[in-house]
Amino acid sequence: MSDDGTPTERFDATGDVPTRKLDAAPADSPTERFEAPAAAPAPAADPKSRRPVIILAVVGGLLLIALIVVLVLLLTRGGTPSALPTGTPSATPTATATPTPTATPTPTPTPTETVAPPPPSTAAVVDSFTINPTSASCANGDPVITLQWSTSNANNVFFGVDTGTNDAQQSPFFADSLPASGNSTNDFPDGYRPFTYTCGNGSHTYVITAVGSDGSKDSVIVKVTG
């Protein structure tokens, strides 16, 4: 620098490039100072904008806890975690009530009135009366015929020939009473065995009459021709 304050250039001896050295400005030269403006304060966060974040954090935490609980339960059971079934659950069928059958009332049987059988009859009855033969042959004289009878409830049995009535008791052929059942070969009185058919009259009627203890009578007539 020269005495009058004019800046001078200085050249070093080591190179060709001149080196300019600028002296400091005079003390009385005013110096401008620029300061950086202060940073503006950051806007305060809106509480509403943080609420979804908090909710998501809580939900995530609950899901994580639930997953840990499921894993612990599966591990303590010793099983392998199986995939949860997906899809729409099928509707459970509703049970249909079965109607209870109504019991059919059993009809009460009507009591049958028991009718006592009538007491057995005590009346005398001729059950059968037969003569063999009923057509006698008179070529060789009076032929033998056989009579057979059977009665019920009879105290006396009477025999009549051509009595003209149905009651041999009124006109008996012989006075003796015959047994309730018998035949002429064995049961007719002596002198009338064997019993013969009397030829010459064309026919004869023979009657058996049974008489009961109550006075009842029953007669049967058989006709023999000769």
In short:
The protein has 226 residues and is of the alpha+beta class. 15% of the residues lie in helices and 19% in strands.
Explain what you see:
This protein is an alpha+beta fold and 226 residues long. It has a domain of 101 residues: Immunoglobulin-like (Sandwich). Helix content is 15%, strand content 19%. It contains two helices and six strands; from the N terminus they run αββββαββ. The strands form two sheets. It has a three-stranded antiparallel sheet with strand order 1-2-4. A three-stranded antiparallel sheet has the order 3-5-6, with no helix packed on it. β5 and β6 form a beta hairpin. It is rod-shaped. The N and C termini lie far apart (219 Å).
Topology of this protein?
Blueprint (H helix, E strand, L loop, with lengths): L46 H31 L47 E8 L13 E7 L3 E6 L19 E3 H4 L15 E9 L5 E9 L1
Antiparallel strand pairs: 1-2, 2-4, 3-5, 5-6
State the share of residues found in helices, binned by percent: 10-25%
Q: What's the architecture of the domain at 125-225, going by CATH?
A: Sandwich
Q: Uncertain spans, ≥5 residues at pLDDT below 50?
A: 11-15, 21-32
The Rg value, from CA coordinates, equals 80 Å
Q: In DSSP terms, counting alpha (H) and pi (I) runs of 4 or more, how many helices?
A: 2
Q: Based on helices, strands and strand pairing, what is the structural class?
A: alpha+beta
Q: Mean pLDDT, nearest integer? A: 79
Strand content: 15-25%
> What is the CATH level 1 assignment of the domain at 125-225?
Mainly Beta
